[in-house]
Amino acid sequence: MIRSLIIGCLVTMLLTMVSCRKFIQVPPPSNSIVTTQVFSDSASAIAGITGIYINMWNRGSNTAGSGSVDLYAGASSDEMTGTSTVSFMQEIDLNNITTTNSYTQSIWTNAYSYIYDANACIAGATASSSLSSTVRNRVVGEAKFIRAFMHFYLVNLYGPVPLVTTTDYNITGSLPRASTDSIYAQIFLDLHSADSLLTPDPVPVNRVRVNRYTVSAFLARVSLFRKQWVDAEKYATRAIGGNYALLNNPDSVFLNGSVEAIWQLPTASAGYETAVGQIIIPYASGVLPQYVAMPQQVAAFEAGDKRATRWMKSTVVSGTTWYYPYKYKLGYDNSTTPKEAFMLFRLGEQYLIRAEARAQQGDVSDAASDLNVIRTRAGLPATTAATQPDLLTAVMHERQTELCFEWGHRWLDLKRTGTIDAVLGAPGNAKPGWKPTAALFPIPYTQTQLNPFLTQNPGYN
Amino acid sequence: MQLIASGNAVSRPLLLKLLRVMKLTASLIIIASLHVCANGYGQNVTIVGKDMTLDKIFKAIHRETGYQFIYDQALVRKVQPMNLDAVDVPLEEVLTRCFRQGNLSFTIRNNAIVVFKKPEIITSPQPDSNATAPLFDIHGTVTDTTGAPLQGANVLIQGTKTGTHTDAHGKFILHNISDDMTLVISYTGYEVRLVRVKGNHDLYIALHTSIQPLDQQIVQAYGTTTRRFTTGSISKVTAEEIASQPVVNPLAALEGRVAGLLVTTNTGNPGASFNIQIRGQNTINAAPGGNVVLDNPLFIIDGVPFAPQNSSSTRLQTIDDIKSVNTTSTTTGLSPFNSINPSDIESIEVLKDADATAIYGSRGANGVILITTKRGKATRTTVNGTVYTGISHITRTLPLMNTQQYLKMRRDAFAADSVTPTATTGSNYAPDLLVLDTTQYTNFVKDLYGRNAVANSASLSVSGGSATNSFLIGAGYDRQTYVFPGSYADNRASVNVSVHHNSNDRKLSIDLMTQYSYDHNMVPGAPSILSSFTLVPDLPSLRNPDGSLRWFYNGTSLSTILNSFNNPLAYLNQSNNVQVYSQNSNLLLAYQLLPGLSAKVSLGYSNFTSNEYVKYPSSAQDPSYATYASATASNSNNYTWIIEPQLNYVHSFGRHSLNALVGNTEQKSASSFLSTTGTKYANDLLLGSIAAAGAVTSTQQYNPYKYSGSFGRLNYIFNNEYLLNVTGRIDGSSRFIPGKQWGKFGAIGAGWIFTEEAWFKNKVPFLSFGKLRGSYGSAGNDNVGNYQYVSNWSTQSAGYVYGGSIGYLPNNLDNPNYSWSLTKKLDGALETGWFSNRLLASVEWYRNRSGNQLIQYTLPSQTGFQYVTRNFQAVIQNTGWEVAISSTNIKKKDLSWTTSFNISFSNNKLIKFPGLAASSYGNIYAIGRSVSAVLGYKYAGINDTTGVYQFYTTKGQKTYTPSAFNKDNMFVLGNPNPKFYGGMRNTFSYKGITLDVFLEFRKQSGFNYVSQVNNPFGYMTNLPTDALNNVTEKGKGAPYERLTSKSFGTAASGVWQYYRLSNASYGDASYIRVKTVGLSYSLSNDVLKKVKMNSCKVFVNAQNLLTITKYKGNDPETQYYYGTPPMRTIAGGINFNF
């Protein structure tokens, strides 16, 4: 017995010595899949893009996807203000953001995270030999759209930012700022490419993924920002020609599946509604909402404007009346299907883009008729503006009321029209310490530390 | 001086052992008197006196020559006092003269003179024709107490130079022996035994392990050694030292006890985690400016890597998850070592240098901690038990303002801002002054932390056996409650079993050691409770009259009145129910193939399972916001199995002693967890069941890790004087891509016991032992996550379906090119023993250089990720000095006093960093500076006119806004690594009473409480009364700036963020702590005999009795203003053995 034990020992020893090289191989990870597997079949490849949509919803307000631009760009302008006394919020309210503000930093971090995901999808799908060209085009098209979308908000909020079109961290880790023009050039390049790769969706309309109409709607928005009025009109017209319609009842616009929606993010986890709704809607009386409309915004609504009561709500806290954003009316509910969805593009904006583009081109009557489509739905009479400058003013005013509390439209409009200093710096405006340099958010402190080639925006040093 | 050599098989070591034998013979007493000069053997002495006893003469000679005398008092007392008149007479002659009476003789060995009765045969055992006693051969076997044969033991005939060694079976033969002879048997690490022959021709001699500290066994990698012969740096903490402290976690027992080992507790809560570091941080901080990821040593229990190592045993949130709030903390959650009962531990060895750690190869870079559990002994069955009970309460907290002080501060703050507080929301809103009832006062620290916690402990073990079979079975139960209101408590039940068997031919031995424990920790779930004492003191009571939690005040939400208000009692309704099942087992099979050659297989298994259940009831949430009742069940597991076949060859010939070891390691570890969250509960009462949830989501992870290695060690000792130790290892790890998996590590260590040198002997008086040792070698590290070399994607949370599709997301930036990091360690030490080793002192120097850093290299967010795993050619150097002294100051029959002391000085420095300026680390690190250095602003005092803090720019100008963007404006504030640290233990015994006092000390710096206060003084949070020392209240010269009511927008608030990060809020955090005081009384032997017990002791132990510090904050060790400081525990109990 003992002899056999010796032999056993020796054999074990020998065996282990021989086998140790093989021993240390581990199986591939069981709860994740490697890149080549992701792009080996169409369902997985599409899931690669879906992951970005889910994250845009799932990361809540701390994301460039669902809410943080609405809230932080909104609080930066004169449409709403955060009531929290947390210093990061107050900094945004007072346009005196410190470089360590984690609220604005979250936009930066998440936008680049989505850009990485998009770049990974573009690289993975392009390299795959097993995907059908339809699926490959769809994946690459949607990914390019997302890449363009994120760069668009980065450049508008932070000014010139690093332009990231690859996943290679050896390259992207030390990229300096690109020029605004080259960023827009890439945005157009990506959108035109997406335009050719994506197909318009058949009926019923797909509102939850990027399709060719979404590309048109975004091209209209970008063209407007670049003052390319002809293109803005052209792409807005194309988007308006899609299978969308304005809803008569303003309360229904932000519901899931709203026919006005060109792109919206419904919840991916039943029970939770939009991040914005979860943050703003108070759950009990006597609670001050975390964001309230500024008096300037409340005053912007004309008498009889349905939107003043449907998209804004009042509450009395400690004897004071407050108005708060009410486009999204739900935070959390016990339903298994999403009731509301976070809006990224909708038809209403396209009419206003076309109205502005037409007005800029001198087409006053067509501009007025686009504008009146929006006014009619709001229960307002047709516009009285008849000249180009009056119409442009009327469109800007309509944007302030139609697009309030959404995607920081007001903040970006003031900047792109060059009126921000005049409006926010005006005496009596609630932005007493306004400085022109506040028009750009600071580059997050940690990022300038981690990338020595990244310079800070003026006014933040 | 020369030792007498003879033609027989007697070597110098044998004679040295003879000395030790005589020294330690039970009735001998070592002379404690001291002397300063000695000129070596052959010197002359001058002694003149009348009626001198031998004792007196010895003392005189000792004074003059430094020689110590080793003798039997009974022998010496028989000699009549004599007159001496020796002037400059050779020492030998004097001694010969003295020993004429009483038939005494002497030998001079080392620095001692050994006096003995002249035997019949003095120089040779050759048959004497006149001898009457018959002569015969004698056979014998020498073993340890477990019956294991001891090879190479010395057997010597007392009073002669004749003797022999035992062979591989522990056997020896001596010829020409007579009945009246006495054999002296000695073996390194064991006590010397004297055996009278008295007609026994067949002897069986069992040796007990030595109580001489120098020769006590210490556990090393794959074997044992002694302090005398080790070439490596190994420190030992004994069971006795562990038992002297009323602690539940064995890591707590190490604090301050070992030079070079820094142990820091994170909080004072039961189950709290510990930061453990051996000789400093070797790895670059993974995230610049973020939480430091501390290097952890490798933990091995009975030869088996402890499955969870020093990672948290919880995955879900507990009150100890303070990382989110305290960025200086590095380890969070509960300590997995809480599953180990300290009373099951025989010893803890800390392996520090390359010589000791290189055989662990890749895992030894940050040092190794070996935990050895208790074994049964070959004695009659004995029962040992300890029971104690005690109370704990928090120690240092800063006194907070009461309502009166607080309201005054607030009013002064508004006045200082020249604004009028308002009762309605707006920029001058002051609800604490104008809305709340200002006559209220609640001391939140007292209400939440003020209670006494209770600690109970009981352990019992039974052990015994024979030389062939022995066993130990122990069981323990511990319970500690929390100071918070509520039924929070940590309970542990543990079992320890050890079985040993030897075959009758002693060739086969089997050892099984296993510990099993169950720990149930009902722990508060929300760390935010800790910051709740910043609540304004005039808050209404936290409960409504009906007992429900208060959320509203006069109909208005308190969260609207006081921004971000949360009721601290609500946090206490969120608990984490943690159940930990831990098992560590090792089966050791050894077989002697040939004399000297044995084969061994060590089979180990360590399993650590932690089940957590967190309830988040809607009743514990503010109804002003959406309430989401949810419950999460998490099940995580870590296991390790390890097979280590080994061949060991031991051989002694002449003056050479050789020990060779080769072996193999095959290890597999895996960590996994499955966490399931249930939401949409219809009712809080259902939260105990995940199945009752309306919706369920899960996350899961499984990380296998495989590891393989071959190792060898060659240990050679020449003449018990020259020591050489060579170790090597080849390791493979699954954490690297194939092709990068294998690493080679090795070390060489050498030692020289110079006190054995003939030319050295007696040159230095009282130096009984001296060894110089040194080592150089390398160890590696593969401490990165699994699968980082391959780009992989994973799904979003289960249940997240978007537009009919699930979603994948990339997990990581992949880098296939990384491999082992490498730490090169250089170590040198001088170890000495004085006054017959009553005082042992060692001085050690080391230099560790860690290169090819394997880190999660931080990247800017524009890459899409926070970091990538890669090697990095930066080199961090840790150097240091360590001093350890232990001494027996007084040792008398009834009185003894022993002292042990250790101190460590360490220095951490970045010595190489290619491309530092362009890297993510450019603004934080500098060559030549410690990687732990804290950067911040340079404080320039308070502006006399504005009363606001100012700071210096690089150019020396004063400014209110020292921009962070100009890195030159950042100055080194200090280094949180201790400059030096250590401990001192004094044990006094008088008769049965023992007093044991242990002091721990650290010289260090750190941020004080101000740095953790988020808003400037005067804002709406309560503060320590220290904050009243501000310019507004106390005028010019006060240390704090003028008050401001706002967190934002005033001059005083604008500088606050800079002030928090300036040298003004950074300073001395040194302390001396009376860590343990133990007072015990042992029953006298007479009483014990009557009650038939071996020992019985009643004791009172106190932990953290007193802390002396200038630190401005709660506790200088945890340095956390909001956390539970370490508890003061006072426990009384009884220990018995029968």
N-to-C SSE series of chain A? HEHHHEHHHHHHHEHEHHEEEHHHHHH
Low-confidence segments of chain B:
1-41, 120-129, 324-329
Class by alpha and beta content of chain B: mainly beta
Report the span from N to C terminus of chain A: 81 Å
Q: Estimate percent helicity of chain A.
A: 40-55%
Write the layout of secondary structure elements.
The complex is a heterodimer of chains A (461) and B (1138).
Chain A: H1 2-23, E1 33-34, H2 35-38, H3 42-58, H4 68-76, E2 80-82, H5 87-93, H6 102-127, H7 133-158, H8 169-172, H9 180-197, H10 212-225, H11 229-240, E3 261-266, H12 275-280, E4 291-293, H13 295-300, H14 306-310, E5 312-317, E6 320-325, E7 341-346, H15 347-360, H16 364-377, H17 388-402, H18 409-416, H19 420-424, H20 445-450
Antiparallel strand pairs in A: 2-4, 3-7, 5-6
Helix pairs in contact in A: 3-6, 3-7, 4-18, 6-7, 7-9, 9-10, 10-11, 10-15, 11-15, 15-16, 15-17, 16-17
Chain B: H1 12-24, E1 44-52, H2 54-65, E2 68-70, H3 73-77, E3 82-90, H4 91-98, E4 104-109, E5 112-117, E6 136-144, E7 154-157, E8 163-165, E9 171-177, E10 182-186, E11 193-196, E12 202-207, E13 217-220, E14 223-226, E15 234-238, H5 239-243, E16 261-265, E17 274-278, E18 298-301, E19 304-305, E20 345-351, H6 354-357, E21 368-373, E22 382-394, H7 403-417, H8 431-434, H9 444-449, E23 453-465, E24 469-481, E25 489-502, E26 508-524, E27 552-553, E28 556-557, H10 558-561, H11 568-571, E29 575-594, E30 597-616, E31 630-653, E32 656-679, E33 695-718, E34 722-733, E35 742-752, E36 767-781, E37 792-795, E38 808-810, E39 821-834, E40 839-851, E41 853-858, E42 867-872, E43 875-891, E44 895-912, E45 934-936, E46 938-942, E47 949-952, E48 958-959, E49 971-974, E50 980-990, E51 993-1003, E52 1005-1007, H12 1031-1034, H13 1051-1054, H14 1056-1060, E53 1066-1068, E54 1071-1082, H15 1085-1091, E55 1095-1109, E56 1127-1137
Parallel strand pairs in B: 2-5, 6-12, 18-21
Antiparallel strand pairs in B: 1-3, 4-5, 6-9, 7-8, 7-10, 10-11, 13-14, 15-20, 16-17, 18-19, 20-21, 22-23, 22-56, 23-24, 24-25, 25-26, 26-29, 27-28, 29-30, 30-31, 31-32, 32-33, 33-34, 34-35, 35-36, 36-39, 37-38, 39-40, 40-43, 41-42, 43-44, 44-50, 45-49, 46-47, 47-48, 50-51, 51-54, 52-53, 54-55, 55-56
